Amino acid sequence: MSSRHGSTDRGQTAASPSFLRSRWAALGVLSATMLMTILDGSIVTVAMPAIQRDLGFSPGGLSWVVNAYLIPLGGLLLLAGRLGDLLGRRTLFLAGNTLFTAASVLAGAANGPGLLVAARFLQGVGSALASAVVLGILVTLFTDPRERTRAIGIFSFTGAAGASIGQVLGGVLTDALSWHWIFLINLPIGVATVLLALPALPRDRGAGLSAGADAAGALLVTSGLMLGIYTVVKVERYGWLSAHTLGLGAVSLVLLAGFAARQATAANPLMPPRFLRSRTVSVAYAVQLLTLSAMFSFQVVVALYMQKVLGYGALDTGLAMLPAAVAIGAVSLLASPRLVGRFGERAVLVAGLVLLAAAMIWLTAVPVDADYVTDLLPVFVLVAGAGLVIPALTGLGMSSAGPQDAGLASGMLTTVQQVGMAFGVAVLTTLAAARTERLRADGRPEPAALTSGYHLAFAVSAGLLVVALALTLFALRRRPAPAPRESETPTSVTI
Fold this sequence. Notes:
single chain, about 500 residues, mainly alpha, Growth Hormone, Chain: A, 2 domains, disordered C terminus, transport, transmembrane helix, transmembrane
């Protein structure tokens, strides 16, 4: 099978056993990269006190250990996705993984704040290059709707596992060895991923820079996104109505508006306007933004609640949240592909959003002296709805992607995820902190003031999910479930 985009040049046919094996091997490589990226985002949080103590970060400067990674990751995804279409997605994937692995070693060897922040920035760049094209490679490998659904379920499972594994692993490595190892652990994973990717991923030539080298558009969208994400992550320090936030936010919007205008007139636009004309894709992006804003904030705020109110340690918090990862992973891996195959993405998405909204509503009443089994464990079971939502949204968001723009679609979907996570954490933690401060000033005890602030954050999360549910019900068109092939029943998918 050979074609200009996403093809293999190893003389295999789409039906040959060797080609089928290579596709699933490629999925393993892609999933390992996603696991490494998400794990790196969560593993750092539990090691922050140790990093501050050893390297002498100021309280304000410590946030840059996280922000220096998030800003290039979110800002470069759209550009990286398009570059994958132009230069070859395999090439960009390998370059991104190599840079991420090298930067991880640099971060692990850091002996001062400046070097660590610089290494984290390079990690973000490498992660953006690799993760922007992952879904683009996946959808070009798995063209059969039922196999694609199965592959997306497996891919989503690794993403769900990465968040909780990172929290647990971060606590174990920091306590048993040192914080340096939370970065050095990426070395064997990264090297193995690159070595396995060389034979597993199909070679694709890309369309060439002449087919879409919109330098002005790239500058506008990258600077606009990076500045916007920087503004959002610094809201907690400056406030929503400060000159810093309003001024930089306005500049970011102007840059993004300039990018949109540029795309309507450019000869080779970075993001062709036709790409967003699909109602299904546009609504899926909106639902993705709302859902990720709520769910990533849930992870952060629940962790804060367990540590600051219930007195859990970092490792205890990671272990306590492990049932959520297991539930999400099991649903995304085992149930979601079958349900999507039988009922379609829209119905599965509705069911998942109902479960997630119920979990957030439950948390709005969690007490100061919560019991884990009766007050928190039911929530971690309900958030299994994310195992339905994430694969369904991924399938909808990539539904209009052809071989020529699968990298762009992948970059767009991942950009929406990152912006949603950054925006959600900034909004919800700021709202929670503001309510807590008001209650402290009124003389409320510290645990009660904190819990009330977290209740507000959970209530806003529930509201975001209800809006996402309304969009799904009233704005998202029904898409028929893929018809079963003659050799399989409607609910069975074999690898």
